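Task: encode each sequence below as structure tokens.

Item 1
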Amino acid sequence: MSLFHANAGQAEIIRSVQKDQEHIEYVRTALSEVLLLLSQRHWFKYNALCKLIAEILYHHYAIVNNLQTLGEEYTGIIQVDANYVMLPNKALQLLAVLLEYGGEHVADRVLTYVQTEIDRSEELLDSVKDSLHRLIDTLRVVVPYVRGFHTSLFYINGGKYHISKRLTGINYVLIRNWLKEDHSIYGYKVLGYVTLTQLILALAARYRQHRMEAKQKPAVSARSTINRPRSASGSGAETGATRNCALCMDTTQDISVTQCGHLFCWHCILNWLEKRQVCPICREAIKKTRVGKCRISNN
């Protein structure tokens, strides 16, 4: 018998997710404190992974033992398959967890690897390499907007809050159907339309910024060509002090140097290395521990 008539609403699903996140944060904090007690160096290197580990452990325990998560139990919902007939199998549930909490990270690592291989290839033309790099950069920019549109559709129509649930076909049903709050649906529809409007405006602003940057590039290139002889004649310290960071495109602050010899803002390169362990310029593999600060003397 289909349980479609008892499908969970937006309010129940969001409350469940929020409750689960509270418990996941508790586990993450405990893991982080244990890691800090073991070694400050290891904490600096691996603390970012504590949240991912906490999320996988939390959901893995519930799936393996055929239990609801604490959030699902709190709101009275359970997971069912795409046909609203039976519980989803464990493999499908584990796949959904891995896609939700690790899919984006894995996709980013794959894109970084592809970019590295493109740069190393001697068979591809430079024009082809540039086109492929632009395509990969576009894919990275698109991901947050895809999440935003998916969230907007959830607020408007209900159904699946996570993209991973849509890919795996897992649904939620309310096992205490008399607690379903129909009066809250209208408010979520309004929130969905507002979110969708915000995303459209953000995309329009992004497109406008891209057009303006494209128009400014020829002028910047011309100024760089004119100023290059003067820069070459200046002192090495002055050139290093006034150069721009390749990540934030602003004057370099707290100059740091990677093992491959490129200079960046200290906080910019550390934030970059949180996501990908390669140099933004030459794509050489680098580590946080091999990044050092430069001290430029005025003498």
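Item 2
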Amino acid sequence: MFSTKIASCRKFSTCTVDYGKRNFRKFLLHNRGPQNHKERQKTNPLPDMLPYDYGVRSTGYMEGDKFVEVPELIPEIIVPDLTDCDLKPYVSYRVSTIDQPEWTARDLFNAVYRSKIENDFNTGKLNADGSAVEPSAEEKLTAEEARIKARQTGCDIYIPKSKGEQEEMFDDYLK
């Protein structure tokens, strides 16, 4: 004979038992419904069903039934050409740490103005009050003009160096 034992177990719950059933109809899902519903949503959407864009930002806006594309909203991906680049995409953990002193205002002054002041002093192109007889374009700026120029996007203070000077700096850096 075949016998079965039914084990009874007691459950205590403060909510009703759903037995795995959940009501998903209350959630507005973009892909819910048969094919004819999806086609109807494209032509005449229901007001309570929000359009779903999968997180992609739109490149324009709707003007009535027509989509107007805005060129400024189209993303432009700029990728540099790295064919002649000697750098590798890996930095070894055995590289020694480089301790550099903090960049101060005196260092900035020396990097930008020192050579000009030394040249003017050595050639005697300074007035009695210490100002340059032939001031450069940076020396002619007022305080407000210099502040505006310094806060512009892409303004680099560093003077472009020749290829030989860059290689010497790189060699000194590796020592």
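Check on item 2: The beta strands are 60-63, 66-69. Helices lie at 35-43, 105-123, 143-150, 163-174.
End of task.
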